[in-house]
Amino acid sequence: MTARLTRALGLALVHVLAQTLLGFAVLFWTDRTSSARIVALVLVVVCSMSWGFADGRRDRLRHGDRSETDFPILWLQAAVIGGLVAGAATWLCDLLPYLSLGRNSLLFELTAGAGWIVLLIYVPAMVGVGAGRVRANRVLARGA
Questions:
Q1: 3-class SS at 64?
Q2: DSSP readout, 15-59?
Q3: By C-alpha distance, which of 34, 12, 24, 27 is closest to 113?
Q4: Carries keyword rRNA processing (predicted)?
Q5: Which of 3, 47, 77, 136 has most Cβ atoms within 10 angstroms of its Cβ?
Q6: How far apart are alpha carbons 39 and 16 in whole angstroms?
């Protein structure tokens, strides 16, 4: 339970922080909005992928071919919880003055917004888990 909550809350925090920084960028750097959006997107994807990479590598080095953890389910649960938490937190942050995060409704943030966040967390994490296992295989093959 704590593994998925740690991942969910950590990546929700990363997403809300990226959205908040993007909101400030939209207000103060109107000419660089598109590049700020790309940076915010890359930040969330890189954090998710690197965490997945660490999970896959650590699991393969500890347990070899038999995995102790079901990473697709773990990361799916973390992504859904993180998406819902990030959607609600983004909506709350949008209520603050001088911070424009899109002015979306709570229903939008908990459905479409959360769905997008789930994809931003889950897909890169699964790519990271696979890459981490491949990297660990190379380390194990070199050491054997």
A1: coil
A2: HHHHHHHHHHHHHH-GGGHHHHHHHHHHHHHHHHHHHHHHHHHHH
A3: 12
A4: no
A5: 47
A6: 14
Q: Tell me, yes or no, if the pTM score tops 0.85.
A: yes
Domain that holds residue 36: 2-143
Phi, psi of 103 (to 5 degrees): 55, 45
Question: Of 121, 139, 142, 119, which is closest to residue 131 (Cα–Cα)?
Answer: 139
Predicted pLDDT of residue 63: 86
Q: How far apart are the first and last CA of the chain?
A: 35
Cα 57 from Cα 62, distance rounded (Å)? 9
Q: Taking 90 as the threshold, does the pLDDT of residue 78 lie above it? A: yes
Give 110-141 pLDDT, tens digit per residue: 999 999 999 999 999 999 999 999 999 988 88
